[in-house]
Amino acid sequence: MIRFFTLLFFLVSNSIFTILEIEILKGSDNLSKVAFVPFGAEEGFEEDYGEQISRYVEKNMLLFGEFENLDKSEMLSYPSSENDFFYRDWKVLGVDYSVIGKVNSVNALGNLNISYFLFNINRRIKILEGEIIGNEDNIEDISKIISNRIYEQITGLRGIFDTKLAYVVNSDADTYQMCISDIDGKNEQILFTSKAPIMSPDWSPDRKKIAYVSFENGLAEIFIQDLQSGKRDSIQALGMTNSAPVWSPDGKSLALVVSFSGNPDIFLYSINSKRLIRLTNHYGIDTEPSWSPDSKKIIFTSDRSGSPQLYEINTKSKRKKRLTRDGNYNARGRYFPDGKSIFFVHGNDGNFQIATKKLSSRYIETLTSTSLDESPTISPNGNIIIYATKDGSNGYLGGITLDGKSRFSLPVKNGSVREPAWSPLLN
Amino acid sequence: MEPIGIFILAMLCQVYSCAANVSDSVERMQYASVAGDEYLQEEKLETNLDDKVYFDFDKSTLDAEDKNLLEQYLPEIKKAKIVRLEGHCDERGTREYNLALGERRALEVRDFLVVKGVSGKKIRVVSFGEEKPLKNASNEKAWAENRRVEISLY
Fold this sequence. Notes:
The complex is a heterodimer. Chain A has 2 domains: 31-155, 3-Layer(aba) Sandwich (Rossmann fold), CATH 3.40.50; 164-422, TolB, C-terminal domain (Neuraminidase), CATH 2.120.10.30. Chain A has 3 helices and 31 strands. Chain A has helices at residues 49-62, 88-91, 139-155, and strands at 23-27, 32-36, 40-41, 67-69, 97-105, 112-120, 125-134, 164-172, 175-182, 189-194, 198-203, 209-214, 221-226, 232-234, 241-247, 253-260, 263-270, 276-278, 286-291, 297-302, 309-314, 320-322, 329-335, 341-348, 351-358, 364-366, 374-378, 384-391, 394-401, 406-410, 416-422. In chain A, strands 2, 3, 4, 5, 6 and 7 form a 6-stranded mixed β-sheet that branches. The longest helix of chain A has 17 residues, at 139-155. In chain A, 46% of the residues are buried. By secondary structure, chain B is α+β, with helices and mostly antiparallel strands. Chain B folds into 2 domains: 3-34; 52-153, CATH 3.30.1330.60. Helices cover 47% and strands 14% of the residues of chain B. The chains are: A mainly beta, B alpha+beta. Chains A and B meet through strand 15, strand 16 and strand 23 of A and helix 1, helix 2, helix 4 and strand 3 of B.
């Protein structure tokens, strides 16, 4: 008798528990100190939106352990406008940057008008001034926009506080869940639950869809799921198995692995025409493709040399180049957003760790120190890598900032979490 | 018609609508219809033999011991209607590479059986990579047990 896997499928805006929460493990001794002064508010509000917003902004900015904050009790003054701001109050406390702001009601609809300022204390200048209008229900979203702008001004990097993370949760031996959440772990959604393994999630560039591999029909198949409607479609790209889907930067095609008669090779799959174009043709294992940011090249893993190593192929000329030579295991490569470096899993002496390499140099730099690290994903601003690792039999996510300022972990409350995939920015 | 048959028909309609090689779709159909236990209509046969062969890390080659074991198994394998080979890896290394490696291992066993006279048509191959470990632990013993091809007869 044929039994079907029970496929539960539901989209929920808030799950019962939040799975991920970032815990900072090690910060550098040399972090910039930022004072987040509680935002002021005009009288007449029932709730203290000012303090709520500055608290959210502070939490965002501290999320990855990149900054140190100044405790409110140590502050000498609580300015909320430029006129009340005095550099000496902050200089004396060793503060590098101060954030102040104020909430004003703007119209009868109850919309909020929020003004905010960022000061560089050492240079004694205002480096950012902004105004944002929003609804009181969107306080967290407003705070993310303000956080992004402050982060950009201080670091010169794009802010990532409104990005999301996709990941696979294996809560017990026979339950696999495809999940997404905000980057701070909030608003977790379970996209799909299955009794069979789920693998390899990847975001479409517009953040509206996720491609992943599911074994629900007994073999590896690629599905594309629409996040708005929850609708799932198998792409049916033929071959014995389909795996490792990754979206092209223009969102029109997937690079993926098709195994015809048991020989996995890299193909391009056009989402509209459903046409497959073969990229590699080798009797060895070719897998784990990923696009260069300019779409011209695809990095992939191949064991054609006898051990897994990274190669890149020009999608037009099909010219191939070997990228790694040191060590007997270099796999699942991804390009940095600038296209000049790659990050990957590097096997060395029985340890599997996350490593980076400039394309222009031979030298491999290992970033992590645990031994079963895999599935690295990079923040869209190129500054943070989140990866999967293990502690005993439980999988959890680890993170590291590439400037070496911070290490953090995202432990799961139930079972194992793995295969993190960082969403692109919303443009 | 069985529900799975309808599913495959629906899949085939899709398949014919795109630029497709018919033999590929047939291959996939056969594969999909018997890849999981859930899709096998035959009763699983009970055997007294060890039904697993084991591999070295990042290797898919069969050693003398494995071949010996498969040889002993041959009479029963030849009697079976369907032989299902399920390839697995340990947790080390990357997931997608391990998915391909598990397939390699199962195909290595298939090729050996075919050379020994088992009809390739009745052999079904599937890989779960590192997704379904037998032992959920991170040590040499667990890894060795997880690097396996499981043989089921129907």
